[in-house]
Design brief:
468 residues; 2 domains; transmembrane; Polysacc_synth; transmembrane helix; 18 helices
């Protein structure tokens, strides 16, 4: 057990280097953005980032994932593999600029159509270059590349927004330049300096890479619908300002999701290792119980402090965004748990199971968005997202029972879910009595998970004694 936990912890730390640092930089830049950008301007840049992130996998046929996977093979020709990706990106660049007339016809994007295209293109090249590093298992360099990208975005945004008052254009140029710097760094570290010297395309490799990459596109589409379609629908129904508020509210669960994803990425390696062990169910359940305790305590704690936190975190005109955070925090819980359960599909290479749950969840999300956003506004998107992920979680639990028996509805966990839901309602009670009740509910959550808290405290004390 000790060796298992050490392996899981080591991988968690490796992924944390790249994931957590970059998201923390983004998270702490929000006060700058909310002070210097109006809700409408922030909504526009969030929409543009969403569009770019969505277009790249489809216009490049998801080639970045193909690069990463094929570079992991023994005797892989990294130059050949990455070269195929870059050639694909060159063709995709033309396709991206062909979309410019569409952007010019869109009210929110018409003034920024060129920058939308340039941002999307540079994002694609940076993703391909970073995928090459992951494929070569240069994980430290990959993490450094992500950190370079985030630091460059932060520094350039401070310069463009604060110094030159460039607003939306400055925000986008910060991302464009950061993407270029990241691409150069990643290609250099991936030994791709002479990538096209004597380069010849291997048609068989191209076919294999495209077959693999195209197979992942439906799943990528479904997860995009679950994660990003809310922003487009909010903008369409309620306008860019409403999307700006939603984007700020989303920063809280995004940070929490980054923390959790650092663990679930590491868990996927442990799950593969444990697939053939006799006690895989017992070990997986123990890890799952700990994960549930952490995400529910984090979520309850965030709801407890959400209003005072937003008072100093964002500019006054954005303060109302706290009202949309509770439902998104509930979404975070079930995103994390469904991702954990979904690693079972990876272990057993069951892509169909992945796809079925994602399709059903995405369809449910779209239908609920169309119904709820016009009726109850921004919180309709939050409710649709939460319900969609709850559905995906329970679908995956049931569907993966053939591989792994997880106990997901024990009394402790049900009590935790109930308290999270109760706190998500109580938080709207705007006086000291309401805050007092909210605090008591949080204490109840601590009591529910007291055994886990005590075990973690004892473990930390033991490590401290060993260190001393």
């Amino acid at each position: 057990m000790k060796q298992r936990n050490q392996y899981l912890m080591k991988n968690t730390i490796i992924f944390a280097i790249g994931n957590f640092g970059t998201k923390m930089i983004s998270f702490f830049l929000v006060p700058l953005y909310t002070n210097l950008l109006s809700t409408g301007e922030y909504g526009i840049v969030d929409l543009i980032l969403t569009i770019g992130t969505v277009l790249i996998p489809f216009l490049t046929f998801n080639i970045a994932d193909g690069i990463m996977r094929f570079a992991l093979d023994k005797d892989a020709d990294y130059t050949q593999i990455t070269g195929i990706g870059i050639i694909m990106m060159i063709f995709s660049t033309a396709a991206i600029f062909l979309l410019m007339p569409f952007f010019r016809m869109t009210e929110s994007l018409k003034d920024y159509s060129v920058l939308v295209c340039v941002f999307t293109v540079t994002l694609g090249y940076s993703q391909i270059a970073l995928a090459n590093l992951r494929g070569q298992e240069k994980l430290l360099q990959y993490s450094i590349g992500n950190i370079i990208q985030s630091f460059a975005i932060a520094l350039l945004n401070i310069i463009f927004l604060s110094r030159f008052q460039e607003k939306v254009e400055g925000y986008l140029w910060a991302y464009i330049i950061a993407n270029c710097l990241t691409t150069v760094y990643a290609l250099f570290k991936g030994n791709m300096k002479d990538i096209f010297q004597g380069f010849q395309i291997q048609r068989s490799l191209v076919k294999e890479m495209f077959r693999y990459s195209l197979g992942l596109m439906p799943n990528a589409l479904m997860w995009w619908i679950m994660n990003s379609s809310d922003r487009i629908m909010i903008t369409a129904f309620l306008g860019a300002s409403a999307n700006g508020l939603f984007a700020v509210a989303y920063k809280i669960p995004t940070l929490l999701t980054t923390i959790a994803n650092t663990f679930t990425q590491a868990w996927s390696y442990s799950a593969i290792r444990e697939a053939e062990s006799d006690d895989k169910d017992d070990y997986s359940n123990k890890v799952y119980e700990g994960l549930v305790a952490v995400v529910l305590l984090l979520s309850c704690g965030m709801i407890l402090f959400i209003k005072p936190f937003f008072r100093f975190y964002v500019e006054e005109s954005y303060f109302v965004a706290w009202r949309y955070a509770p439902l998104l925090i509930i979404s975070f819980v079930f995103i994390t748990l469904s991702t954990f359960v979904g690693t079972t599909y990876i272990v057993y290479k069951d892509s169909k199971g992945f796809l079925k749950g994602a399709i059903l969840g995405a369809v449910l999300n779209i239908v609920l968005n169309l119904i709820l956003i016009p009726q109850i506004g921004i919180n309709g998107a939050g409710a649709a997202t939460a319900i969609g992920y709850i559905f995906v979680f329970f679908y995956r639990v049931k569907d993966t029972q053939k591989y792994l028996k997880l106990a997901v509805m024990n009394k402790r966990d049900v009590a935790g879910y109930a308290l999270l839901l109760l706190m998500s309602v109580t938080v709207y009670w705007n006086d000291w009595k309401g805050y007092g009740i909210l605090f008591l509910e949080f204490l109840c959550a601590v009591i529910v998970f007291r055994k886990f808290i005590m075990e973690m405290a004892q473990s930390l004390l033991k490590r401290q004694k060993i260190t001393l």
